[in-house]
Description:
Layout: E1 13-16, E2 27-30, H1 34-45, E3 53-59, H2 78-85, E4 88-90, E5 93-94, H3 99-108, H4 137-145, E6 148-154, E7 173-177, E8 188-190, E9 203-205, E10 208-211, H5 226-241, E11 248-253, H6 270-273, H7 282-307, E12 314-320, H8 348-351, E13 355-358, E14 368-369, E15 373-374, H9 378-386, H10 400-404, E16 413-419, E17 424-429, E18 432-436, E19 491-495, H11 513-529, E20 563-565, E21 570-572
Helix pairs in contact: 1-9, 2-7, 5-7
Amino acid sequence: xxxxxxxxxxxxxxxxxxxxxxxxxxxxxxxxxxxxxxxxxxxxxxxxxxxxxxxxxxxxxxxxxxxxxxxxxxxxxxxxxxxxxxxxxxxxxxxxxxxxxxxxxxxxxxxxxxxxxxxxxxxxxxxxxxxxxxxxxxxxxxxxxxxxxxxxxxxxxxxxxxxxxxxxxxxxxxxxxxxxxxxxxxxxxxxxxxxxxxxxxxxxxxxxxxxxxxxxxxxxxxxxxxxxxxxxxxxxxxxxxxxxxxxxxxxxxxxxxxxxxxxxxxxxxxxxxxxxxxxxxxxxxxxxxxxxxxxxxxxxxxxxxxxxxxxxxxxxxxxxxxxxxxxxxxxxxxxxxxxxxxxxxxxxxxxxxxxxxxxxxxxxxxxxxxxxxxxxxxxxxxxxxxxxxxxxxxxxxxxxxxxxxxxxxxxxxxxxxxxxxxxxxxxxxxxxxxxxxxxxxxxxxxxxxxxxxxxxxxxxxxxxxxxxxxxxxxxxxxxxxxxxxxxxxxxxxxxxxxxxxxxxxxxxxxxxxxxxxxxxxxxxxxxxxxxxxxxxxxxxxxxxxxxxxxxxxxxxxxxxxxxxxxxxxxxxx
Length: 573
């Protein structure tokens, strides 16, 4: 939608009406064109000599300005910069503003609001996860084309029952942690749920090796930095499958650069932190060290991909799960400059994610694309590439032809998020974006999360800086950064193509009345189709103290509701 006339009907949507949230009530999906659908069906019927290997590499809480190829003058990421330079940089790739919703969309091809995961992240102790009747990408690849499927690093998609853990969702093996965050060195997860003055029950080891449905703890790796361990496992998988005829799906989800436990949130080896003496803010300097360590680990993975012969027949997708948490939000000091906002928010800084994609047959290697992408698009895109029929009911669309043939994207709109609990939501149609409601700045120490933050300190600019991949902003507003309307309350509207830094609120500009009408109509429709958020209170039976101080699945019967005997520290049914 490049003009304001907007006599264009947005893409038709299909609906699947089911009986419960677990069955995805009123599930919407972007409709495929006939041509793309035919290509998918033909690919599914064809017998291919070898499907492509697929590698997803997910950074955690990486800010827009935390990579050299986006123009950072502060953080050194030579390995990411070099690989991005020979890939397709996707500068309009959108994710959810939080971890669990993005990861769920990445592995299912669905919007978070269709799985009840739109309100927040999955917190330790909640009886929640990606609904079991939703098939994940590894299961589709394994069933459809015999892929070997391995997950390494962070899960964060539910584990209160074993059926929610990775090896029950389609992965052959999993090495890493289940929760949102752990200590980088001792691999324990801690959350401040103190139920009495004398007992904090929620600290325990969260470091696992699961294989073929058998769950196991890793007890002997205390003191080893988690990114190093995860890298070792990923490189070993690549080495072992390089001589196999079976195609490989590797899901590599870094802990970096998410904060660790609250008592020591920013952790990196001293050799990495000391790379940034010019960053005078100690917190930012540690954040930069964490980024540097992740970049070095990335270099090892990229070297393994080349050494073991994966570059000719592998799709490699690097992305962050959400924008960076800025100014101390979530105990972190990322930078999304010059974009507006932080993780948790629906501003561009929260939802426009650092992303690049590589495939030897991609049309625009070494270029920057601004076609609209959503994190849910990777499931149908990968299935299309593997010649597996794309299931109905997905919100993602295949971007295979956009990547391989250089065709314009068929995605005309996307839902950033809907949260019925807070009435905070945003939608994008064409170049225009509507935000309704306001983020609670008090949450998790996120003061003024809708502002523009520039990082303190200075270090040399990366030699791989891609000037076409840096955001150019208009002049900033003269009177702060409030988002309000005389007519529409807490609402904002922006032309993102013209104003990516979200300076100029167009909501009350009557020359954009047709644009405003379409955006509100689309958002209303998404509200009608969304399921109820599934964000229950913490279940005290989750306490690691009941399970030898480990975080493990703790529910075998969903109907059981225990009480806790705090004297003897045991559940009572």
